[in-house]
Design goal:
With 84 residues, the chain is mostly beta strands. The chain contains 2 helices and 6 strands; from the N terminus they run H-E-E-E-E-E-E-H. The protein has a 6-stranded antiparallel β-sheet with strand order 1-2-3-4-5-6, with helices on one face. The longest helix is centred in the first third of the chain and has 7 residues.
Length: 84
């Protein structure tokens, strides 16, 4: 189980949410272009609730979401209608 200190070391930023949860965010640059955001949501006891990877293109537009935990759903492309 990760502790708050470990999460703060591994993730570049975080925010406290009103319900006692915390959202950690880590940005990883792509090899060619774009970047990915890893978003980890934990409860007040630092128990992981979800981990999601958001993939952005070189223009900063969200193009895919990949939920990794609690259920790995694989990459889900974001359609134009969801983007607006």
């Amino acid at each position: 189980m990760a502790t708050r200190e470990r999460n703060e070391r591994r993730f570049s930023s975080w925010e406290d949410l009103p319900n006692g949860h915390r959202r950690y965010i880590r940005r990883i640059m792509g090899r060619v272009s774009g970047y990915a955001l890893y978003v980890k949501l934990v409860d007040a006891d630092e128990i992981t609730l979800s981990i999601t990877q958001e993939i952005y293109n070189a223009n900063g537009r969200l193009i895919a979401i990949h939920q990794k935990y609690p259920v790995d759903t694989g990459h889900q492309d974001v359609s134009e209608s969801e983007d607006n």
